[in-house]
Predict the 3D structure of the following.
Amino acid sequence: MISVPPSQSHELKQWVAEMDGVARRQDRDCFMRIYDHFMPRLCRYLSGLGAPPVVAEDLAQEAMLKLWNGAELYDPARSGLGTWLYRVARNLHIDRVRREHIWVHAQDVVDQAAEHDVQQDSLAELHAEQVRLRQCLGELSAAQARLIRMSYFEAKTHTEIAKELGMPLGTVKSHIRRAFLQLQSSMGEQR
C-alpha cells in the first residue's frame, strides 16, 4: 500500500488513494477519476511546451498509459501526482523532439546528398567529407564512438542508450556531449 505523509492535504491524500487502487487492484474507476482530472491539464501543458494539439493529446495518452502500467512506481513522499505526471509527459515530449530533430537532420542530409548527385564534382566532396567523418570518429575513444553512433546514426534517445548500455543517464549525456564537441572540433580543424 502507498503510504501518505501526514502533512499532505485531503486532495493529495485522495490522489494517493486513487493511485493505490490503480497500483494494487488495477481499479479502472480509480484510473478514470485520475484520467478525467489530469488528461485535459496534460494536453494544455504539452501544448504550452510547443506540441501541436494532436501530438499533445497523443503524448498525454502515453503518459496516462505509463501511469496505468507503472502506478506502483509513484511515490507520494517524493512528489504530488500532478508533478509526477507532468514530469512523465515532459520527458515523453523531450524524447519525441529529439527523435524529430534527428529525423529532420537526417532528411536534411538526404536532401543535401540529392543536390550533390546533380552536381558531378560534388560527389568527390561528399566522399571526402564521409572519409573525414570516419577518420574523426576513429580518433574518439571506442566508448565515445559507440555513443555517437548510437545517438546520431541509430537515432536512439539518451534514455534508450542508457538502458541498453546499463549506464546512468547523466553519464550518457555528458559523454555524448564531450564526444560531439571533440568530433566537431576535429572536423573543423581538417577543413
In short: Residues 29 and 94 are 30 Å apart (CA to CA). Residues 81-118 form the longest helix (38 residues). The chain has a mean pLDDT of 81.
